[in-house]
Amino acid sequence: MPQTLNINQADFEACFLALLTAKREDSPDVDAIVADIIADVRARGDDAVIELTEKFDRLNLTPDTLAFSREEIMAHCATVPTVEREALELAADRIRAYHARQLPQDAQWEDETGAELGWRWTPVSAAGLYVPGGLASYPSSVLMNAIPAKVAGVERLAICVPTPDGVTNPLVLLAAHIAGVDEIYRIGGAQAIAALAYGTETIAPVDKITGPGNAFVAAAKRRVFGKVGIDMIAGPSEILVIADGDNDPAWIATDLLSQAEHDESAQSILITDDAEFGEKVMQAVTRQLETLERRVIAGASWRDFGAVIVVNDMAEAAALSNRLAPEHLELCVADPDGLAAQITHAGAIFLGAWTPEAIGDYIGGPNHVLPTARSARFSSGLSVMDFVKRTTLTKMTPASLAAIGPAAEVLAISEGLEAHGLSVRARLDKLNR
Amino acid sequence: MPQTLNINQADFEACFLALLTAKREDSPDVDAIVADIIADVRARGDDAVIELTEKFDRLNLTPDTLAFSREEIMAHCATVPTVEREALELAADRIRAYHARQLPQDAQWEDETGAELGWRWTPVSAAGLYVPGGLASYPSSVLMNAIPAKVAGVERLAICVPTPDGVTNPLVLLAAHIAGVDEIYRIGGAQAIAALAYGTETIAPVDKITGPGNAFVAAAKRRVFGKVGIDMIAGPSEILVIADGDNDPAWIATDLLSQAEHDESAQSILITDDAEFGEKVMQAVTRQLETLERRVIAGASWRDFGAVIVVNDMAEAAALSNRLAPEHLELCVADPDGLAAQITHAGAIFLGAWTPEAIGDYIGGPNHVLPTARSARFSSGLSVMDFVKRTTLTKMTPASLAAIGPAAEVLAISEGLEAHGLSVRARLDKLNR
């Protein structure tokens, strides 16, 4: 059974702190292995990638078969039932429409000295997207990573998806096709990240790598960070539901389990101002767990990391939520907008009982790649902004240099950087001549 | 003497590649030492910070003197000459005005199904800024880090600046005061980063850490990344000047030296379509190096990493520039705006011969914390965006759930996530009843 806490109990602060700092993730130390793999791929390119794929995925590839051919992709896509294809297409359309609004604006203006200032946004030229194989191979994640990149204007988008024993998920290929992915390689693990970052004879290097992965992939992304850009290192998923007593306990229970079923390390928390309602949700979870397909995983997550917290009012709920900084936050209350206004840290908010979190995982439009493990305190979900970068622009006129140049010279000299000062002084002298 | 290359020479591609991949930075492996320091600060808090400060900075502190008092700050600030104070204030005003335009907009709209979608930006609650002590203790960097944070709305901004042997730079304190910094601690190194990330009895933890530092600081920032947000890990500074023959060779030479004087690992490159002009700039650099205060540093940088590249036309210059993805790019050409339009990767562009790069270091308005080592391919300079984060918003109505919910259910089932599907289905069933 999960923890039940009441904000009025004497040891609440200690219990809540324990919940806040609970270590949910095993981080096996694979760094040395990953360093060797990256060095091997840098030194031997395709040969190394092919050998490692044979070793880890029991798959014999050649440079010519590292990538899926267009024919193979089309053949796999053709096996997808129409209802699933249409669902993917609807999801893609909605994700594209949402993210298109994130494209940032260039700016240019003249300041009071006559100088022109501004900035310009440009897309990353080439991006790589890692897609896990096996159990966690989610076509929805392909859409969520690939579409923001394409909306940003990334010209070349490559996917790496391992196919252990040659087993391919046609939905992943279809999602990539719908999203406009340019290249799909059937490789995985640290070797795939190394190939994307450094390139091989067959795989051109990219500038940015995103997407989830296991401990090897995460360690490899950390290692190549700097050589290329990376997205966040995602931890186990989590949901916080804030619900009043006017909800159907069964709905809330299912919402909690929809997070718990991801992973034994996932975390589902309910905060309510109605202790009796909290009890009913606990009972509903227990009941639903009896028949749920993934009851072993969901049950372990709920038992080890689940919690029901009873508060006196919704202001207390908001304050606790801000300390948790949850990845997903459902507000199943009478005035969800009013409560949302009190939330300062959260990856995504789902407003009202008609908005189950699963809508955001698939089809709502916003991204489902979101900050975990309290990192919503300082970071955001994946977006178009992850695939663009800003160049600042400055254009002085002789008059504007005369107006502000002397101050730059003063500061340069105060920092002991003479040539900085001289580069301004030479121009000022010409004006004074 | 630096390298001189002509794009028409037979081995140009090999030489340019060597320039592109030259390792300019020693990265001493201090990771084990840093891990110990962080563990010590986490375990012993103030005591560890105080002991390490005594060891590394030869400074005896107590919990009460870890931070500068308001009186100390004011006393130091009072020693700054008026001309320097006014220059700092002008710089702060201009940086504030530029960055105020970067504040991102919230968004909310209704889609065609009646669902409300959008996002909201909120500031990071607390940020920490590292300021190096000694030679590289730059008040301008305090302004460039602190002002974007304050513009973003960060409530609590703490600075760590080591004061080895008690030596304090009054300009750094004044810059912090002008920028509105809330707390200034006289500690440095990995112990300062650990204190900011994990907190001590005296120093409350922050959510995001920015600012430059030595190898220990950089390693510590990498280690605490995830627990808190960090900015980029900055490498040695660099400038690329693209100049035609209509420039004063002395101006361009000084601009190149203003980057070279930062650091022996800095890099200054000139690309010109006028070989004779390139020669003149080389001669001017040699001449100016005879008297420059920091001639040992600037001379070593120019000798080891400088280059003059002669191209046939400015389109070639732009193409090479995009491969270099320079931190700073000066366009000293007849039509700088036209050339800038061909630039796809650069941290900051300075347009026209009246815009020396040093203006951007101090007073132009844009940030001087910029992506180095070709990372402008995938990242941007520091900005207000580094101190805010986005929460996505989704609010379904019964009708919008009826419209798109079934597709979410299909996708959930295709991914084997039954509870995800059930959380949608339970609501759809209620509608159909």
Brief synopsis:
Two copies of one chain form a homodimer. Chain A is α/β, with parallel strands linked by helices and 433 residues long.
Strand order of the largest sheet of chain A: 1-11-10-9-12-13
**Inertia-based shape of chain A:** globular
The pair of chains with the biggest contact is: A-B, 121 and 121 residues
| Average pLDDT figure of chain A | 96
Strand content of chain A: 15-25%
Give the CATH topology of the largest domain in chain A.
Answer: Rossmann fold
How many structural domains of chain A? 3
Number of DSSP helical runs of chain A? 17
Describe it for me?
Two copies of one chain form a homodimer. Chain A has about 425 residues and is α/β, with parallel strands linked by helices. Chain A has three domains: about 30-230, 3-Layer(aba) Sandwich (Rossmann fold); about 235-380, Rossmann fold (3-Layer(aba) Sandwich); about 395-430, no CATH class. In chain A, about 45% of the residues lie in helices and about 15% in strands. Chain A has helices at about 10-20, 30-45, 45-55, 70-80, 80-100, 140-150, 170-180, 190-200, 215-225, 250-260, 275-290, 295-305, 315-325, 335-340, 355-360, 400-415, 420-430; strands at about 5, 105-110, 115-125, 125-130, 155-160, 185, 210, 230, 240-245, 265-270, 305-310, 330, 350, 390-395. In chain A, the strands form three sheets. Chain A has a six-stranded parallel β-sheet, sandwiched between helices. In chain A, strands 6-5-4-7-8 form a five-stranded parallel β-sheet, with helices on both faces. In chain A, strand 12 (about 330), helix 14 and strand 13 (about 350) form a beta-alpha-beta unit. In chain A, helix 5 (about 80-100) packs parallel to helix 6 (about 140-150). The longest helix of chain A has 19 residues, at about 80-100. Chain A is globular. The model of chain A has no long low-confidence stretch (mean pLDDT about 95). At the A-B interface, helix 5, strand 3, helix 10, helix 14 and strand 13 of A face helix 5, strand 3, helix 10, helix 14 and strand 13 of B. Chains A, B: It catalyses: L-histidinol + 2 NAD(+) + H2O = L-histidine + 2 NADH + 3 H(+). Chains A, B: Pathway: Amino-acid biosynthesis; L-histidine biosynthesis; L-histidine from 5-phospho-alpha-D-ribose 1-diphosphate: step 9/9. Chains A, B: Keywords: Amino-acid biosynthesis, Histidine biosynthesis, Metal-binding, NAD, Oxidoreductase, Zinc. Chains A, B: Belongs to the histidinol dehydrogenase family. Chains A, B: It is an enzyme of class 1 (oxidoreductase).
